[in-house]
């Protein structure tokens, strides 16, 4: 696997992190499940991470599960949040402990037990892509391990040119926001022939002909936007797959290898620079706080070091949302605690 990175002590294996994104219902979790099965059949079991705190029935067994640490139902009840608000809040809280997940991935790195780590994100794509926690998690992964964004697109629901264009625009926005190697998975090709999508991406005239059949007011706007995506299509890596049958997963993994190489060549230096700049900023801030402490302590004043220990309501964070031993999950219907997965499985 092309996931080798150089360290100060030489060259080491590093798991390639796949951040799986997509619209609700596009088949992200089914895709992750089939990818897990496919890789295990080929003696390459992936390291699975579930970041959806509201998922009740998980078809695969994750190595790390946000539900073991964050009580989604309790967050919703305590702060009178709706489902999406509770998911965003749960992710925000979990991101404060994300360094622990990086440590576990670092252990995988040292032991060379997995060469791929798959991160399954919440069903509502905007919850992850446009939240502070999503950006933090993405940056933490990309500044530490080779990272690739996998955008799962539902072929069945994108046969309308307007819907197709909406999907492509969202994919384009994610690509430029993440600034990482990007693969579009054209999912459900066992239901719908992917030829139409591939043709629309490469032939503007064919796409224009399809729009002519649309009678909605969006057709003119869609035609105009299609012209702006030509450059995006030219550089786009895509692969039609079936998460039901496992069709074309071998081609997908070849693309992952290529994307990992691309990360090492074109993205790694930039992300290492980001990490060093953040570390320098943290050191500067810490020195500033220590200097303030040294000056103020002589006067016997209380010093606020900026450590967040409570929510805006004044409750202790650990009392609200964190499972004390990280081995409890919330039942999605009653909110009762049941035993969960061990983080070290």
From TrEMBL:
Main localization (coarse): cytoplasm
Annotated GO MF terms: GTP binding; GTPase activity
GO CC, one annotated term: nucleus
CDD domains, A to Z: GPN1 (cd17870)
Subcellular location field: Cytoplasm; Nucleus
E.C. number(s) listed in UniProt: 3.6.5.-
Enzyme class: hydrolase
Keywords annotated in UniProt: Coiled coil, Cytoplasm, GTP-binding, Hydrolase, Nucleotide-binding, Nucleus
UniProt-listed InterPro entries: Gpn, Gpn1/Npa3/XAB1, P-loop_NTPase
Subunit description: Binds to RNA polymerase II.
Role noted for this protein: Small GTPase required for proper nuclear import of RNA polymerase II (RNAPII). May act at an RNAP assembly step prior to nuclear import.
Family: Belongs to the GPN-loop GTPase family.
Protein's UniProt name: GPN-loop GTPase
Organism (species): Cinara cedri
